Amino acid sequence: MNQNKLYNPFALPPDFQLAQAHAKAKQVGYQNQNQQEYCPCCNMAINKIQIGVCEDIIRLQFLGEGIPLFFQSIKLYSILLLLIFVLVGIYNIITTSDLCYKEYHFNLMDNEENQEQGCYHFIGVAYTVNKTELQLTIQAVLALLGTFLVTAGLFLIKWFQQRNLHFSINSSPSDFTILLRNYPYTHEKQQIEQYFMKYFNVNSSSIVKIIRPLNIQDYLNDQKKKNEKLQEQQKIYALMTRPQEVREKNDILNQLMLEIQVLDKQISLFEQQVTLNNLYQRTDYVLVTLQEESLVDQILDICNQNHWYEIMMDYVGCCDKLLYYLNNDKQQWKFINGQRIYIRRAPEPLDIIWQNFNTSHSQKRCKRMLALSLNFLVVLVGAFIVYGISYTQNQAQSSNTFYVKYVLSGLCALAILIINQILEMLIKITSKYEKHTTYTNETRSVMVTQTIMQFINTALVPFGLFIFTDFDQNNLAVSLFFIFLGNLIILPILEILDPLYIIKLIKQNQILKEQDKRQIILTQQQTHELFEGPDYRIADKYSTIYKSILMSMFYLCIFPYGMMMQILSLFLYYWACKYTLLRRCSYPPTINRNLNDSTLQLLGISPILISAGSACYQFVLIKTYSNLIIHIINMIISCLCVGTYLYFKFESKATHTESALCLNYFEEKKKFSTDYEKCNPITMKQAQFQQQYKLE
Q1: Distance between CA 138 and CA 92 in Å, rounded?
Q2: Cβ–Cβ under 8 Å, residues 375 and 449
Q3: First vs last Cα of the chain: how many Å apart?
Q4: Distance CA 69, CA 522 (A)
Q5: Partner residues linked to 286 by β-bridges
Q6: Which segments of the protein form a coiled coil according to its record (predicted)?
Q7: Among residues 343, 342, 339, 344, which one has the least CA distance to residue 320?
Q8: Which of 383, 416, 556, 631 is the most buried (most CB within 10 A)?
Q9: What is the pLDDT of residues 67-108, one digit of tens each?
Q10: Cβ distance 274 to 682 under 8 Å?
Q11: In the chain, pLDDT over 90 holds for what percent of residues?
Q12: DSSP codes joined into one string, 39-99
């Protein structure tokens, strides 16, 4: 098997040896220098050197910066949680033990007596709400110190990953390319060159090429329809074994041929319009590649804006006209005929979702709001389900202690886990609907939305039901115990024993056993997809970790055992994720460090959660306001810490050496593994033809 062998994705019956070889090629492993066999489908080496599960994570940098940073983050978060637990959590456990075990002679069977003293228990674990004023004051002060500790820890994690995780990154087309958004459709190449000359002093000779991404959604739809028709045609041919069947299917085959011809004409017409640079197919995006990387850095420095300003303009975008009239001479690059222009470094070619360029930014904002509303609706439905279980638990409090305390609490935790899984599937669908222009942004959207929604469902819903309803406090503690226990045990097990992966293995075995007994109607492409390993869904893994971390921060003072269980959960989840990556999952897409930087921003709310949890413990559970001033100071300081942390921004792009500042596009082009023309579906064939022509 080599890359010169022709690959027919619609071949019937499929070649199972080729499918199994493709599955090997898609596995994660080191490149074998003596490798001579390549998969004709994906052009990846078949026989790779297996990576040990205990291998240093830095050795995984060939998968992109995002993968090593993900595993490094789990380690650093575990250390941070351990320090916070030592500072704040241990004291709460010690005071609980002193009051419930020593002073009141804690007895597991004597529940009413202990509740009178303010002690609650479950599975041998106890906590109390009957603390002295001194103990409550010390706890509030420790929560304040925990706020400083978590803020300092997050800053150190940022610094450590920025300074000590420098990966040897080769230059890419993104280093020389700028992306303009909301640029006028009617401007031609000469006008774009004049724009750069006027505002950035960049000569036209320094511009290598200008690419106008087109509206290719109809083109891709036609391609998809054509592939479906070809696949249907191949299936009919494969199933026809007698002349009578050929005559019966002749009309259907003729109809399919006519439909394929019509689609071919539409596809050819679109490609001709692209060649003629049709104005009506343009989007408001422009990719401009410059000769020197220093020119790109120079333009980005000029266009650098306040972080919060960019967020407001990106997500609200309602002040363009006002800014146009208030504009000064130094900011004239922002507007063309009153139209706001946005400039940033272009994403990597393989990171771009080309068909989403046709969706305007205002439409994307509306889609995001609709998607967010739908996700929040699911959270509300889950809250009503948990309310129903908690109501039953509260009503049956006096009938059966074991049933009320453990069975219903476990059922409540199970309901929350199921709602989280539903949210996970729904958010993946809605992220596609939001029409992000890059896979990184789409992954970031999945991760952020999933983390927030699952945190609300897992942490805030149970506590909110306790606040707004007259439910028993002990039931809250037992429910929290089962929720954290689920994070500790169920999540690592689901990572290893993925139900979808098991179903896939069963289908593979059934087809291999029956390939000689019956006609297989799967095409070669479908067989390849069946034999591939599961996708490495890093957004789901990030959200799982962050949801649990934020929850343990919020319940640090209310339920300190949760932090201890979360540290152990991170340890197990780390090895489970590493095992599935190196032994099971297919080769993940290249993930840059931007995703990890965004996740660090999300954890910035941790100081507020610690101070809010401490305040809720005293004001809601114990119902005492003796340390009100300390908690107010704690909340103010935590908000300042969060604002400082979010405002402080590390550059996403890795720092180059001084010698690298003079990189030239034409010198580095030979090292590029891909380019924008090669990744754009509409120009891919032409780019490949030009490359082959140059080689010849």
Answers
A1: 10
A2: yes
A3: 24
A4: 39
A5: 180
A6: 216-273
A7: 339
A8: 556
A9: 888 888 899 999 999 999 999 888 877 776 655 554 444 443
A10: yes
A11: 7
A12: -TTT--BSS-BPPPTTS-GGGGGGG-THHHHHHHHHHHHHHHHHHHIIIIIHHHHHHHHII
pLDDT for res 575: 92
Region at 80 (left for phi over 0; alpha for psi -120 to 50; beta for the rest): alpha
**Assigned token pair, 580:** 């599935």
Between residues 8 and 360, which one has the greater pLDDT?
A: 360
- Both tokens of 507, joined, read 């289908």
Say if residue 43 is exposed, middle or buried (CB neighbours under 10 Å; 0-12, 13-18, 19+).
exposed
The runs of H, that is alpha helices, within 434-498 are: 439-455, 461-468, 473-485, 491-496
CA distance 414 to 408: 10
Q: State how far the Cα of 618 lies from the Cα of 142, in Å rounded to an integer.
A: 14
SS3 122: strand
What gap in Å lies between CA 2 and CA 104, rounded to an integer? 76
CB 567 within 8 A of CB 78: yes
**Stated pTM of the model:** 0.78
* Amino acid present at 656: H
Per the listing, tokens 């082959």 go with: 692
Mean residue pLDDT of the chain comes to 77
| Cross-strand pairs, 287 | 179, 211
Rounded to an integer, the average pLDDT of 518-532 is 75
Sign of the Cα pseudo-torsion (274, 278, 283, 289, in order):
positive
Q: Which residue has the tokens 């009413």?
A: 112
- Calculate helix-pair angle for 594-602, 133-164, nearest 10 degrees: 170
Instruction: Provide the token pair at 161.
Output: 């990953």
3-state SS assignment for residue 182: coil
